[in-house]
Amino acid sequence: MSTNEQAIEREIQARGLTAPRLTPGDIDATIVGEAYHRFPGTTLIVCALTLRNGFTVTGESAAASPENFDPQIGERIARENARNKIWALEGYLLRQRLAAAADAARGQDDAVQASAR
Fold first, then answer.
1. Which Pfam families does UniProt cross-reference here (predicted)?
2. What separation, in Å, do the N-terminal and C-terminal C-alpha atoms of the chain show?
C-alpha cells in the first residue's frame, strides 16, 4: 500500500464514509501470486499478478536511460502499475454486485406490492 493510499484511507475513515467500497487491503487480498520477467538486453520488466479467481493483470516498467536501470526499482514500479489495474476491475465487480442487490430488492418490493393487490 502506497503512502498516498494510506492517506486517502485515513481521510475516508475520518469522514465516516461507510458505504460499500474497496480498500487497499481488499486490493492486496485479491493477489495470490506474482512473477517478473526482464526482457534480455532491455530495461523492460513485466510484472504478472495472479488474482484469487485465476485472472492475471500485468504492469510494466522500463528505464529511459540504461544507466539509471535498477532491477529492484523496476520490479516495484511494474508491480505498482499492475496493482493499480486491479482497482478498476474490483470496482466494476463491486458496482455490479451493488446493482444486482438493488435489482433484487426492487423485485421483492414489486412482488410484495403485487400480492397486496
1. Phage_gp49_66
2. 54
Pair 36, 46: CB distance under 8 Å: yes
Dihedral, 60, 63, 66, 71 alpha carbons, nearest 10: -60
* Topology, domain 20-116: Double Stranded RNA Binding Domain (3.30.160)
- Nearest alpha-carbon partner for 50 in 58, 61, 60, 41: 58
Q: Do the Cβ atoms of 44 and 38 come closer than 8 Å?
A: yes
**Which residue ranges make up each domain of the chain?**
20-116
